[in-house]
Specification:
Blueprint (H helix, E strand, L loop, with lengths): L1 H19 L6 E9 L8 H8 L6 E7 L4 H9 L3 E4 L11 E6 L3 E9 L7 E10 L2 E9 L9 H9 L8 E6 L6 H7 L3 E3 H4 L24 E6 L5 E7 L12 E7 L3 H22 L6
Parallel strand pairs: 1-2, 7-8
Antiparallel strand pairs: 1-12, 2-4, 3-4, 5-6, 6-7, 8-10, 9-10, 11-12
Helix pairs in contact: 1-7, 2-3, 4-5
């Protein structure tokens, strides 16, 4: 039994050493999402100034004007790389999805999403490298729907499964909260930052920022990341403004991603083995 206990201690110690060593330190990325209501209530420069304190790496804008609007926000923030989609939500004026980044973007594309409700809907996607590691970033605007008949289902079953990048972030205006449609996306292997941050979204709202007493629809803007990336949100929340700059509130998150996923998997396997040995030892089943 003593030998088994020593084995468990050695395995646990190896896991802790792996987690603490420099190559295993996580890569931290600071992201935001903001439905800016076609920039009706604020200039891109005003929105840029508001976002400055968050020192963001990448932002997903929703219902943004096309042209140089996103680049103008970037000029204020010192973020020079952007991608502007070509599909305007429900074919309304100035309701494009865009991405603004501090680091170069590649693999830019836009996917139309099909389903019940208003159409067309879409999600823009780009890949960027932070500290030498690639991240796929999506910015979307979708309609409220059920589990299998809307844009959320299209995203979860047709778009995200084809993603080859191992670290994925999906932000935007989902128009859903804690319902069947969101569950469909979460079951595709994603997690909302609200869970890590212990934020009870049932007591908060992101829409309607200008008229909450009459049109409070709860938290319908979300930041998700893929669970397989070994990530965790360490900071973030809903940005509360004294004077709303849109009908939505902006949201942000700081997410720590594992640097070497294969090595992390091995460390987790070692920890699991140690746990198994501990349980077996307690049951008197270990033989050495």
């Amino acid at each position: 039994m003593k030998k088994a206990f020593i084995v468990v201690l050695c395995l646990c110690g190896a896991t802790l050493c792996l987690a603490a060593s420099a190559p295993y330190r996580p890569i931290t990325i600071r992201v935001a999402a903001y439905n800016i209501e076609s920039s009706k209530s604020a200039t891109p420069e005003q929105i840029g100034e508001m976002l400055k304190p968050y020192k963001l790496n990448i932002i997903g804008f929703i219902e943004a004007p096309d042209g140089d609007w996103t680049a103008r926000v970037g000029k204020v923030l010192g973020m020079q790389y952007c991608f502007v989609g070509t599909v305007s939500s429900a074919n309304h004026k100035n309701k494009y999805k865009t991405i603004l980044s501090r680091t170069p973007l590649e693999g830019t594309e836009e996917h139309k999403l099909t389903g019940r409700g208003w159409n067309p809907a879409s999600v823009v996607r780009a890949v960027t490298k932070i500290d030498g590691v690639s991240f796929a970033f999506y910015s979307l605007h979708i309609c409220e729907s059920g589990a299998t008949n809307g844009h959320a289902y299209s995203l979860a079953t047709k778009v995200l499964p084809k993603e080859k990048i191992k670290r994925v972030i999906v932000v935007g205006d989902y128009n859903n909260i804690g319902d069947a449609a969101m569950k469909t996306i979460l079951e595709a292997g994603f997690r909302a930052t609200w869970n890590d941050l212990k934020i009870d979204v049932s007591k908060e709202f992101t829409y309607h920022a200008k008229n909450p007493t009459k049109r409070n629809l709860g938290v319908i803007d979300h930041i998700l990341y893929n669970i397989s990336a070994g990530a965790k949100a360490t900071d973030g929340g809903i940005i509360e403004l004294k004077k709303p700059l849109s009908d939505h509130k902006p949201i942000w998150a700081e997410i720590a991603f594992s640097r070497h996923l294969e090595k992390v998997k091995k460390a987790i396997a070692i920890a699991a083995m140690a746990t198994a040995l501990t349980v077996q030892g307690a049951e008197g089943k270990i033989t050495i």
